[in-house]
Amino acid sequence: MDAILTVDGVSKRFGGLMALSDVSFAVERGAITGLIGPNGAGKTTMFNCVAGIYTPTDGRILFAGGEGEPQNVAGRKPERMTALGVARTFQNIRLFSALTVLDNVRIARHCRTSANFFGSVLRTRSQRAEERAIIDAAMENLDFVGLGETALSPAASLSYGDQRRLEIARALATDPKLILLDEPAAGMNPRETEALVDLIHAILGRGVTVVLIEHDMKLVMRICKRLVVLDHGVKIADGSPQEVRANPDVIEAYLGKGAAHA
Amino acid sequence: MRGAAQSLKYLLLAAALAYPLMPFRDVYVLHVLVLIMVYMVLAMGLNILPGFCGLLDLGFVGFYGIGAYTAGLLTIHYNMSFWLIVPLAVLNGALFGVLLGAPTLRLVGDYFAIVTFGFSELVVLFLTNEIWLTRGPLGIPGIAPISLDVTWLATLLGVDERWRYAFRGEVPYYYLAMVMVALVFLVMTRVEDSRLGRAWLAIREDPMAAASCGVNLFAYKVIAFAVSTGIGALAGAFLARWTLFISPDMFKFWESFLVLCMVVLGGLGNIRGALVGSAILIALGEVLRVALPKLGLPAETRFLAYGLIMVVIMRFRPHGLFTQVAESTMQSSLIKDLRARIAARRTA
Ligand SMILES: Nc1ncnc2c1ncn2[C@@H]1O[C@H](COP(=O)(O)OP(=O)(O)O)[C@@H](O)[C@H]1O
Ligand SMILES: [Mg+2]
User: Fold this and answer.
1) Which residue has the higher pLDDT, B329 or A181?
2) Which pLDDT score is estimated for A51?
3) What is the topology classification, in CATH, of domain B26-347?
4) Residues of B with CB under 8 A from a CB of A
């Protein structure tokens, strides 16, 4: 398997709580991988470790963004991870809500642009060209998720489902190689969820690898090529949706003890 | 409505430009207007921290003081030209801003506010106690006024004269203050509508999401601090060469609080708001200073009035008078183009 991301023995401790214990798995380049598990299993914590928000207590995170050897990125700062090509969305939406839809996405171009204080004040030729390019890139990503026409509305005025799409547009605007989606379908109605499935496939079509945390099992089983199952910070299963569905540990984790034999 | 507001703005600007030339002009009014403009610069500078970045800075006056003393000392010891002093004072303010900011900006919330407060008290203590440098509580009197020496232009034009204009009275300072406000306003609006300003606003809105967009939080907070303190020092340099006397008690904590009130009253993160907030609070302070003694109250009770106003504002307009952030962005030609493109797409 050509792995874009390899999580190798990662643990994360919060005081006395082991949110992740010795978790290892690999994410295949160009595929959709699902990260599932009951509430509090440590899924978001895993995202935060990969995205640089948390430094793992132990273990390695190998990222192979471009050509060349994969590098251990455990403990890198979030902005460094973004520059390397890892983007993410948040379980509880984190938009810049006082700003416009467009500005939310323009900020995401930060790591791919370079104008500084003096360029901004003097409005140099290169600064103006860069500003135009930022708008074009932002609009392209907004159109990609279907929010182009709302570009100049306040981000806070969007519906819940659209706010989730805006977060995806913002993440995509950083030009990622790997995108981590934390419960993107949460709070969406069935029609919005359907559109989301199309969007995720379109993201894959752009050559971006997707890792998805999702509670909607039907959705996960349908679109993920591989699944990783966490429970109480421990990886209990890993494999194709069919394999995972048949795994007694998984059934037990989801339905309680004894369910596997029922 | 929009057109009317626009005309009103130009009318006010024309009146402000013409007032010092009118026969009925009043020195006291001119003085208050210059003071308002000094505070406008301060408020625009402070606005960067709580307004754009969401950082509560309670020590802004420290940098105002650093700018004023830099200018005052360079003038009395080296008789340096104001035009040379301005960049030096700004750089010195920014330098101290970075020196204070770099170790402390990793602190969050209240801790950061307390450290900035401590710093400004430290500045006052330094100015009071290091008598060898600052003359201590006596202050520095006799600072030379600003002069504009354009003899080089005369030489260039082949005129054998000394073209030197010394600032006397309030009028030249009034126009210079206007230029200063206009320049700082231009800088701030341009920064607001740029990669830098967007990074700041992202930090204010959600630091974690900002970092995930690639913004180096620490670096951008330090830049914010440097720009903000540089502008504070600019106002200080002007003050020194305008009042011609500076002393440590001009830079007490109260001033930081006053500027913060202006920014909050105008609307955190709104540049126009900072201007309006300064005008309101300084004008009000002057009115109260005259009115309160007539009512048999000591002039100091005006501080109570300030507090009352802030409470009323927080109750009825919790986000200040102007609530829109990133205003200049919406007026940029690129965004106007985009608006037209989107409208065209809708109709198509
Ligand atoms: N910053 C933190 N400090 C302390 N405990 C945390 C922190 N973040 C997560 N946890 C704990 O770690 C466990 C896993 O949380 P999380 O990763 O959010 O679970 P999931 O996303 O799978 O629902 C939970 O018990 C949660 O309370
Ligand atoms: Mg979670």
Assistant:
1) A181
2) 95
3) ABC transporter involved in vitamin B12 uptake, BtuC (1.10.3470)
4) 187, 190-191, 194-199, 201-202, 205-206, 208-217, 223, 227, 269, 325-326, 329-330, 334-335, 338-339, 342, 345-346
| All residues with CB under 5 Å from ion ligand 2 | A 44, 91
ipTM exceeds 0.90: yes
Tell me, yes or no, if A90 comes closer than 8 A to chain B by beta carbon: yes
pLDDT (0 to 100) of residue A160: 92
Tell how far the Cα of A45 is from the centroid of ligand 1, in angstroms: 6
Is the predicted pLDDT of residue A260 greater than 60, yes or no?
no
pLDDT at A262: 46
- In chain A the domains, ranked by start, together with CATH numbers, are 1-85+176-262 (3.40.50.300), 96-171 (no CATH)
Domain ranges for chain B, please list them. Answer: 26-347
- Residue that wins the pLDDT comparison between B172 and B152: B172
Backbone angles phi, psi at B162, to 5 degrees: -100, 110
Q: Which of residues 134-153 of A touch B (CB under 8 A)?
A: 134-135, 139, 148-149, 151-152
Contacts of B198 in chain A (CB under 8 A): 99, 103, 106-107, 110
Instruction: Report the SS3 class of residue B213.
Output: coil
| A209-213 and A226-231 strand pairing | unpaired
Measure the CA–CA gap between A130 and B294, rounded to whole angstroms.
Answer: 60
The DSSP annotation for B188-209 comes to HHHHHTSHHHHHHHHHHH-HHH
Backbone angles phi, psi at B149, to 5 degrees: -105, 105
- Ligand 1 pocket, residues with Cβ under 6 angstroms: A 14, 17, 19, 37, 39-45
Look over chain B and give the mean of its residue pLDDT values, rounded to a whole number: 89
- Buried b vs exposed e over B86-118: b needs ≥16 C-beta within 10 Å? bebbbebbbebbbebbeebbeeeeeebbebbbe
Three-state DSSP state, B169: coil
